[in-house]
Amino acid sequence: MSQATSQDLSRGAQGQQPVKPPTSTLAIVSLITSFLCWPVFLGLILGIVSLVRINKSDGRLGGKTLAIIAIAMNLALLPTCGGLLAAIAIPNFIMFECRSKQTEAKGSLKALFAAEEMYRGEKDSYTQDLAALGFTPMGQSSRYDYVVVQASREGFRAEARGKGDMAGDLWVITNAADVQNVTNKCMRD
User: Fold this and answer.
1) Is 64 helix (H, G, I), strand (E, B) or coil?
2) Which of these, 87, 110, 105, 101, lies nearest to 160 by C-alpha position?
3) Rounded Cα distance, 53 and 66, in Å
4) Whole-model pTM above 0.90?
5) How many angstroms separate the CA atoms of 184 and 181, rounded?
6) 44 close to 75: Cβ distance less than 8 angstroms
């Protein structure tokens, strides 16, 4: 764009008041995203892109101050928003991790139930002897101790007792095949 054309834009038509160039939409969006907090990097990128476009527009596009403020706000809010997102995400991740560890207890107790039913089919009674059942817990490292607390001709009750990082978690299964979480460690953390 020639120098005369940019001067004509600044003076306006027929020497009247200067015409204000339109404000960059990207600068406005960048400022708005800084208030939303979650798209901090998006707001920062939009602010930088809008500032570059404004500088290259030869005065046809305004909002340079707005773009700079948006960039500054996004940079200033980055640690705050990051901390806020971490405060939301970390407890949810810990809960999810704990629940995923509980699947070991549920799966192993169901396998124990199947072993007890097979034993009962052969011997006409349930047993407390895990070795006689041929039962081995699921997973490479067991987070639970498995114990058949009560066994008779009528029924059995087995428990999965959490140990290590799952200490305090207690799961129970009976001959009715209902796995229940008696003490839920995941709800206390």
Assistant:
1) helix
2) 105
3) 13
4) no
5) 6
6) yes
Helix H or strand E encompassing 18: none
Q: Are the C-beta atoms of 59 and 79 separated by less than 8 Å? A: no
Taking a C-beta distance cutoff of 8 angstroms, is the pair 138, 100 a contact? no
The identity of residue 178, as a single letter, is: D
Count other C-beta atoms under 10 Å from residue 181's C-beta: 16
Residue 177 CA from chain centroid, whole number: 33
Look at strands 156-162 and 180-183 and give their pairing: unpaired
Buried b (16+ CB within 10 A) or exposed e, 121-135: eeeeebbbebeebeb
Full pLDDT tens readout for the chain, 189 residues: 445 455 555 555 566 777 888 988 988 888 888 777 767 688 889 999 999 999 999 889 999 998 999 899 888 888 887 788 788 888 889 899 999 889 989 999 999 999 999 999 999 999 999 999 999 887 667 899 999 999 999 999 999 999 998 999 999 999 998 999 999 988 754
C-alpha separations of 137 from 20, 48, 57, 105 in Å: 75, 56, 69, 8
